[in-house]
């Protein structure tokens, strides 16, 4: 089973995470209802088991909670995938959500990079500032060591745009972490 558990405690957040790429229970509690909804959608659509408990300084705002969750989830992917052998490495996916359409493409390369192209007509979804979406994705990409491209092609509703993004990233990762029988990294260099 490709799985790991991580705990990370700072002066701003206390996070406990369990991730299994082969599936399992999903239990999310970050203290931000809409963020919980996005992470639940992410785990469900990726087919991952994800148990996550976050206590953050929400009296300040949601930034530390969202970004630190991305850091810990990224570190979990990095730990599980290690040398990146025996995986398909690449994944791309479009997700429509009513009037919104989002695209994500991932390369599990060991070279962290994020391209994020999305605008949100409404600033807030519940207690979640949509500007935190790029912060979460940046923290995830850089700590997982992946190249991640995200584009919202269009949409009028920030809830739909954000959810389409999280689901597109989930499906792209599901494809990229799929196991194969190569027993080596998918690279002409022989190593990633």
From TrEMBL:
Pathway: Amino-acid biosynthesis; L-histidine biosynthesis; L-histidine from 5-phospho-alpha-D-ribose 1-diphosphate: step 6/9
EC number(s) given by UniProt: 4.2.1.19
Catalyses which reaction(s): D-erythro-1-(imidazol-4-yl)glycerol 3-phosphate = 3-(imidazol-4-yl)-2-oxopropyl phosphate + H2O
Top EC class of this enzyme: lyase
Keywords attached to this entry: Amino-acid biosynthesis, Cytoplasm, Histidine biosynthesis, Lyase
CDD domains: IGPD (cd07914)
Compartments, as annotated in UniProt: Cytoplasm
One Pfam family this sequence matches: IGPD
Similarity remark: Belongs to the imidazoleglycerol-phosphate dehydratase family.
NCBIfam families for the chain: PRK00951.2-1 (NF002111), PRK00951.2-4 (NF002114)
Protein name: Imidazoleglycerol-phosphate dehydratase
Species: Ruminococcus intestinalis
């Amino acid at each position: 089973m490709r799985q790991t558990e991580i705990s990370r405690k700072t002066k701003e957040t206390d996070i406990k995470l369990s991730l299994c790429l082969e599936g399992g229970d999903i239990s999310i509690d970050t203290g931000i209802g809409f963020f919980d909804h996005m992470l639940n959608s992410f785990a469900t659509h990726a087919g991952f088991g994800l148990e996550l408990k976050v206590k953050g300084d929400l009296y300040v705002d949601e930034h530390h909670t969202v970004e630190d969750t991305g850091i810990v989830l990224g570190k979990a992917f990095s730990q599980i995938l290690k040398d990146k052998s025996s995986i398909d490495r690449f994944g791309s996916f479009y997700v429509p959500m009513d009037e919104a359409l989002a695209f994500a493409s991932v390369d599990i390369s060991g070279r962290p990079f994020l391209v994020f192209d999305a605008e949100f007509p409404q600033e807030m979804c519940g207690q979640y500032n949509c500007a935190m979406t790029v912060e979460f994705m940046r923290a995830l990409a850089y700590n997982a060591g992946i190249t991640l491209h995200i584009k919202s092609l269009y949409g009028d509703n920030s809830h739909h745009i954000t959810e389409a993004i999280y689901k597109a990233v989930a499906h792209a990762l599901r494809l990229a972490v799929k196991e194969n029988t190569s027993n080596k990294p998918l690279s002409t260099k022989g190593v990633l």
